[in-house]
Amino acid sequence: MGKLLAIVLVAIAVLSAYPIVTHMFVLPEDISTHGYAIDSQIHDTMLEAGLSFVGAQIVLAAFVWSFTNRKEGSPLRSFPGGAKVAVMAAFVLVGTEVLALGVMGQKAWAEVYFTAPKPNAIQIQAQAEQFAYYFRYAGPDTKFGAIHPDKIDEGNQNYFGLDPANEVEARDDIVSGELVVPVNREVQLLMHAKDVGHSFYIRELRIQQDFVPGLDLSLHFTATKIGKYEIVCTQLCGLGHYNMKAYMNVMSEEDYEKWLTEQAGQ
Amino acid sequence: MQEGSVQEAHVHAPPEGFVRKYIFSLDHKVIGKQYFALALVAVFTGMILSWLMRIHMVWPNAKIPLLEMFSKNGAPGGVVTPEYYLSLLTMHGTLMVFFVLTNAPFAAFGNYFLPIQIGAEDMAFPRFNMMSFWTTFAAWVVLMLTFFIPDGPPIAGWTEYAPLSAVGRDAGPGMQWGASLWGISIAIFCIASLLGALNFIATTLDLRARGMTLMRMPLCTWAWFITSCIALLAFAVLFPACILLILDRHAGTSFFIPSGLVISDRLQPHSGGSPLLWQHLFWFFGHPEVYIAILPSMGIVSHILINSMRKPLLSAKVVIYSMMSIGFLSYMVWGHHMFVSGMNPMSSLAFSFPTLTITIPATVLTLIWLGSLYGSNLQINSASLFALGFISMFVAGGVSGFFLAQPSIDIYLHATYFVVGHFHLVMGVASLFGVFAGTYFWFPKMTGRMMSESLGKLHFWITFVGAYGIFMPFHYLGLIGNVRRYQSFVDDFMTPYIGWHKFVTIAALITGVGQFIFLFNLIYSRFKGKVAPENPWSATSLEWTVPSPPPWNNFGGRHPIVYHDPYQYGVKGSKGDFVMQNSPEQAVPASGD
Q1: Predicted structure pTM score
Q2: Architecture of the CATH domain B288-531
Q3: Residue among A78, A150, A192, A233 with most chain B CBs within 10 A, to mutate
Q4: CA-only gyration radius of chain B, Å
C-alpha cells in the first residue's frame, strides 16, 4: 500500500499544480497604479510555495515508495548529513527566500500605506452601513459638512446625518450610492463606519481595507481604466453581509466633471 | 526524582461505584476518554453543519429533510435562510476550534497518555482534572443551547468581532441571547482549559518517574507540555476578553463600542470603546490557538512515525526545540490576522516578519520527518497512513501561509476562500490527521481491542483524497477574489465558478460519509475487535509496558524506572528490533550503518 500512497501523492501534487500552471484561475485585470507590485509578489510567492509544495510531496512519495515493504533484514540507513542538513536547508533555503520575499513585499505595502496622497487627490468620504455604501463629495466649497449620528435619517435619505439647515458646508455636499471617480487621478477615500465593522474590497483595484467604527481611516488609490467595478464587503457585518455591495464607476475626467455638475444641480 | 514522596501526593483509592468510575471520575484515563467522546460528538455536529452550509451555498433552494423541525425560523420549509447560514457558520467554527481541535489532540490524548508516558499514576491534581472536563462539558451545553432558544445561534462568526457582537438585539437575529450564550460558553471553556493546562504542566514537571529526564520524554508528551504552556497564556487572555464582551452586552459598559453608532436606526448608548481592542485580545488568543491545535498532532505524528519507521528521527532534540520556537513565536504573530483591520500599517510589518520566521521551525520539522523516512523500514497501517498524510497536509496548508504572511499580498487575499483553504488544511485537516493517527495507534491501549485495519485504510483513502478535493479548490477560488462568509454568490463574475463550488460540496459530502466509517469502526471494534496484546506495535514508550487497557492506577502500584530515551528502535533487543524505555538492557546497535 506504500506504493499506492506514493502514486496518490504524486497525482495530488500534479493535479494541484495543474490549474495554476495552466492559468485556469487568474487574478482579475489590475486597474491600479500599485497593483503590479502586489501581482508580481503573488507570482513570486506562488513560484516558491508551488515548488516547495510539489517538491515536498514528491520527496515524501519517493521515500514512501522506496522504504516500505523492504526485504527482511534490509539495513536501516540514515539520511546523509542527518539533522544538520535539515536545519541548514530550512534556514538557508526557506529562511532566506521567505524573508527576502517579505522584504520585497514591503514595497507594495509601502505604496498603499506609507506614501501620502498627492495634494491634488480628490477627497471622497465613504460610509459603510448595514448593508450599503454611500459616498460623499464635498461640493464646490471643498468642505464636508459634519456628521451628526443623531440626525441620521435613512427615510429622508440623510445617510450621513448632515445638518444643512445650520451648517453651510453641508449644503453643497453630494451623496451617491455609487463611487464615481475620474480615471488616472488619485482619490483619497475617507472611511467612516456608521454601525458595525465593514470592509472595502475592489478586486481589480487590489485594495482591501476595513471600516472600523470609531476610527476614521483613509485610503488612497488611482484607477487607471474606465469601467464599472464591484465593491464588496469582506467583513462579516450581519445578516445581509453577502448582499452588501456597490460599484465604482471610473470615468474620463470630462464625464466625471459632468457627473459632478449634474449631481450638484439636483 | 524521588520515588515515594512526590508519587504519594496524588495517589487515590480505586474508584468505586458507577458514578465515580464512569461519570465524575478522577482517573485521567476516563477523563481522556470523556474528552474524546465530547470531541467526537462536536466534530460530527460541526461536520453536519458544514454539510448544510455547503448544500445551501450551491443549491440555495434545496429542501433539507427534518431541518425545519430543528429550526423553524432558521429553515422554514427546510430551506436555510441567509441569516441561518451565518448561524451555522458561527457554530461550525466555534465547535470545531474549541470543542474539537482543542479537545481531541490536546485534552483527550494528553489526559490519557501524558501521565502514563512519564510513568505517573495520575495527573497532579485529579480533582482539577475532573473539574476541567465537566467545565468543558458545561461550556458545550451552554453553546448548544443557542440552537434551542427562539433567537437562534449568533451570526457574527467564530471570531465574534465587535461591535457586531457587543450591541445585542440591534445587530440582528441570534445576537441577543445567542451571542450572550456564546460569550458565556467560551468564558467557561477558558476556565476549563486553564485548569487543564495547569494540571498538564504540574504533572509533567513533578510526577515523572525515576530516570525520566525531560529529554527522555516521548515527543508527544513534549508537544502536550509545550501546548499547555501556550494554552495557559492564551486562554488567560481570551477569558477577560469574553468577560468584557459580556459586560458590554449586559452591563452597559463600552470596552469595544465607540460613540456615535447608529444600528438598526437606533443611536447606541455607548462611547469610548474600541473594536480593535477586541480583535487584539481575540487574536492574541486566536493565533496561539492554531498551535494549540497543531502542536499535539506534530508530537503524536512524530511518536507514531518513529514506531512505523522502526528507527528514531534524525534528531529528537531538534524536533523539541522547533516545537518550542513555534510556541514562542506563536505569541508574536497575532497581528497578521489584522493587516487590513485599520491598525497602524507599521504594525503590519512588525507582525509580518515573525510570521515569516515561523516557517523556519515548521520547515525544520517537515525536513526532519522527511529525512527520517529515508532508509527506514516503513510499516504501513492505518496509523502510519494518517501520520504520513499529516505531513502531506501540513505542507499543503503551510505553503499557502507564505502568501498570507505578507501584508501586501494579504490586501488582495484577505477574507477570500484562499484563507479558508489555508487554515482548514493546516489547522483543521492536518491536526485531525494527527488525531486519527493517534486513535488507530492508541485504541488498542485505550480499549483492549484492535481497530479494523481494512476499515481504517478505507477511511484514510476517502479522507485523504477527499480533504484535498475540498480544500485545494478553495485556494484557486481565493485567487480570483471569491469572498468568504457569503451564503450565496450574488456576483456575476462568480457564475463560471459555481461548478467548482458544487465539486467542493460533493467532495465534502463524500468525505463526510467516510467519517461514519470511522465512527462505525470505533464502536464495532470497541465490542467486537480482536483482543489487543499489551504491546501490539512493538513500541518502546511506557504506555506499552502496562496492560491494555491499563488498570486504574496505571502501573499497578509499581513505580517504573526509565533507562533510555523513548525511541530505542533499530537496535538488537531481547524482544526484537527495539528496547523498551523501562528495560535495563543495553541496546546493541543493529548491523548496517
Answers
A1: 0.95
A2: Up-down Bundle (1.20)
A3: A78
A4: 24
**Which residues of chain B does A211 touch, with a Cβ-Cβ cutoff of 8 Å?**
342
Domain boundaries of chain B, sorted by first residue = 29-256, 288-531, 532-593
DSSP structure string for B469-528: HHHHHHHHHHHTT-BSS-SS---GGGGGGHHHHHHHHHHHHHHHHHHHHHHHHHHHHHHH
**Residue A14 predicted with pLDDT over 80:** yes
Cβ distance B275 to A215 less than 8 Å, yes or no, reads: yes
- CA of residue B5 relative to chain centroid, distance: 35
Q: What's the pLDDT tens digit per position in A129-188?
A: 999 999 999 988 889 999 999 999 988 899 999 999 999 999 899 999 999 999 999 999
Test A214 with B273 for CB contact under 8 angstroms.
yes
**Which domains are assigned to chain A?**
2-70+79-113 (no CATH), 122-265 (2.60.40.420)
- The interface pTM score, or ipTM, of the predicted complex is 0.96
Note whether A213 contacts B: Cβ–Cβ < 8 A. yes
| pLDDT score, position A266 | 65
Query: What is the CATH T-level fold of the domain B29-256, as seen in this structure?
Result: Cytochrome C Oxidase; Chain A (1.20.210)
Q: Please answer yes or no on whether B411 and A196 come within 8 Å at the CB atom.
A: no
Distance CA B255, CA B243 (A): 10
pLDDT at B574 over 90: no
Task: Copy the grid coordinates of residue A145.
Answer: 459638512
Distance from CA of A126 to the nearest CA of B (A): 15
